[in-house]
């Protein structure tokens, strides 16, 4: 009888412990949901405030006019064109280098103290304040290499900022691929490069693209690095067109042109005392947030679509 009673007591103690743990899990879930909801509401309020303030300027002329000393006719033409050209340079520099580095570190690099050192440094670089990249670019690209305060310098600077994000996301995406996919490819005679290119990278593409777009979304809103390297706060002209009607149909003179970007244009307007300029700044801030949300939405959509097509 005592054994049965002792067994029941143990079961009751286990049930009580499980019940307590479930209760703690629910409490933690509610706290996490409250924090996420609070942040989402705060972002929504900020976004709606910018949209309400800047709505009067949300028209075609705002996107097709140059900045002006008169707020009524000022626009963001040079700012959004400059942002687009800087992001083009950033993309074509950071993405190939970042993805290739992630593939090498995860698939080819020998495990040891050197690989661990690189991994620690890459992880640390992802958390370095952006102003540090601006100071590095000022000394390296502007003064040492003589690239000047140009679109090329800005693109290279933001590439340094974006590289750790792309490398880490590429490694994590590759690391998530089951080992049996590699083993199956090796079993039919595939080489290391064929396994990596045609199997591992194909399955990891969703995570890789997500990291790339998130990195680009961060780059579009950066202000400190481009101010440090000498981006203009007022510019009433456009860089030379990258495409021409004369062979070879490409013009690279725009890489050496002066520029401004959307966050700097917003900063310039918000620093002025006139309320009309503040309306322009609110409209610019709304545009930046919309672009960021669109890029993150595209990343989620691409990841979902790619994963839906993949059959493990």
TrEMBL record:
Cellular component, GO annotation: plasma membrane
A Pfam family that this protein carries is BPD_transp_1
Q: Could you tell me which SUPFAM superfamilies the record lists for this protein?
A: MetI-like
Localization recorded for this chain is: Cell inner membrane; Cell membrane
What's an example of a GO molecular-function annotation for this chain? phosphate transmembrane transporter activity
The portions of this protein that span the membrane are 27-52, 77-105, 117-143, 149-168, 200-217, 223-240, 252-271, 277-300
> InterPro entries per the record?
MetI-like, MetI-like_sf, Phosphate_PstA
Gene Ontology biological process terms, A to Z? phosphate ion transmembrane transport
**Superkingdom of this protein's organism:** Bacteria
Keyword list, A-Z: Cell membrane, Membrane, Transmembrane, Transmembrane helix, Transport
Membrane topology per record: Multi-pass membrane protein
Which residues are in the ABC transmembrane type-1 domain? 80-299
Give the matching NCBIfam families.
3a0107s02c
Q: Which family does it belong to?
A: Belongs to the binding-protein-dependent transport system permease family. CysTW subfamily.
Q: What is this protein called?
A: Phosphate transport system permease protein PstA
What is the originating organism of this protein? beta proteobacterium KB13
Q: What is the lineage of its organism?
A: Bacteria, Pseudomonadati, Pseudomonadota, Betaproteobacteria, Nitrosomonadales
């Amino acid at each position: 009888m005592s054994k049965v009673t002792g067994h029941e007591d143990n079961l009751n103690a286990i049930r009580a412990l499980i019940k307590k743990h479930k209760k703690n899990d629910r409490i933690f879930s509610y706290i996490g949901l409250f924090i996420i909801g609070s942040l989402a509401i705060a972002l929504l309020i900020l976004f709606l405030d910018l949209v309400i303030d800047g709505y009067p300027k949300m028209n075609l002329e705002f996107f097709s006019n140059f900045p002006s000393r008169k707020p009524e006719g000022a626009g963001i033409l040079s700012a959004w064109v400059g942002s687009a050209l800087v992001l083009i340079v950033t993309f074509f520099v950071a993405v190939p280098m970042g993805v290739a580095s992630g593939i090498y570190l995860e698939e080819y690099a020998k495990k040891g103290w050197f690989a661990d050192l690189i991994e620690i440094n890459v992880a640390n670089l992802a958390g370095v304040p952006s102003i540090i990249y601006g100071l590095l670019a000022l000394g390296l690209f502007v003064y040492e290499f003589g690239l000047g305060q140009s679109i090329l310098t800005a693109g290279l600077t933001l590439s340094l900022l974006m590289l750790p994000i792309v490398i880490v996301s590429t490694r994590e995406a590759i690391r998530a691929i089951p080992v049996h996919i590699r083993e199956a490819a090796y079993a039919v005679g595939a080489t290391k490069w064929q396994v990596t290119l045609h199997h591992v990278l194909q399955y990891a593409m969703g995570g890789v693209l997500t990291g790339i777009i998130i990195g680009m979304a961060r780059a579009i809103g950066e202000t400190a690095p481009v101010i440090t390297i000498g981006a203009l706060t007022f510019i009433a002209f456009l860089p030379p067109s990258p495409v021409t009607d004369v062979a070879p149909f490409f013009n690279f003179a725009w890489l050496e042109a002066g520029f401004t970007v959307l966050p700097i244009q917003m900063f310039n307007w918000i620093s002025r005392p006139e309320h009309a300029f503040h309306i322009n700044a609110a409209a610019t801030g709304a545009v930046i947030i919309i672009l960021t949300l669109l890029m993150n939405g595209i990343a989620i959509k691409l990841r979902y679509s790619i994963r839906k097509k993949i059959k493990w």
